[in-house]
Amino acid sequence: MTVWVGAVQITIQGQPTLVEFLHTIPGLDTNNPTTACVEQEYAEHSVKRRLSIMTPVSLVLTKLHALRHFNQETRQDELHLKVSIQAFRRFIMELVEAREVRLALWNWRRLVECHRTKPNRRLEKEHRFKILDAIPISEMRQESENPKQSMEAREKLKNFCRLHWPRVFKERIGSVK
């Protein structure tokens, strides 16, 4: 089975873009599209559809896989990976601001697990990027004090900032040596 099924050009906010349809996506940590993607409504003229769009953490995972396994002579996986890392920062904050703290922290865990693997740490050194730079820790600390968040969400964010992040950061420093 081929990975790529086909593509359709559409216009979004007056700009042409290409929507690609895939059978499978190498490198994902899940086969469940509802956990690897977010739904986005697309409407043009009288047509309305919901499209599954890969989340930035899913893109990071797939681009790391591609960087490791595919000849990069005619590919741009490194550039796409670095862009995906930056997009992840905003994605996490959008989830937190939308009061989706549980989903934000689940995606954070996916990224941390990705960082912990030796092949990905080698890629970080070789290509000079840091997967964990995608974590917007200062913004998450601010949100842990935001009264608009539920008490439960604030506690989860505080727990993340005070307990989990320092452990991960300590691991990160240890892995650099």
What's the gyration radius in Å?
A: 18 Å
As an assembly, this protein is single chain
How many separate helices? Answer: 7
Shape from CA axes?
A: globular
Output the helix-strand order. EEHEEHHHHHH
Structural description of this entry:
- This protein folds into two domains: 1-54, no CATH class; 55-176.
- It has 177 residues and is of the alpha+beta class.
- 55% of the residues lie in helices and 19% in strands.
- It contains seven helices and four strands, in the order ββαββαααααα.
- The radius of gyration is 18 Å and the shape is globular.
- The longest helix is centred in the C-terminal third of the chain and has 26 residues, at 151-176.
Q: How are the SSEs ordered, and which strands pair?
A:
Layout: E1 4-12, E2 15-22, H1 33-36, E3 37-44, E4 47-54, H2 56-69, H3 77-97, H4 101-116, H5 118-127, H6 137-143, H7 151-176
Antiparallel strand pairs: 1-2, 3-4
Helix pairs in contact: 2-3, 3-4, 4-7, 6-7
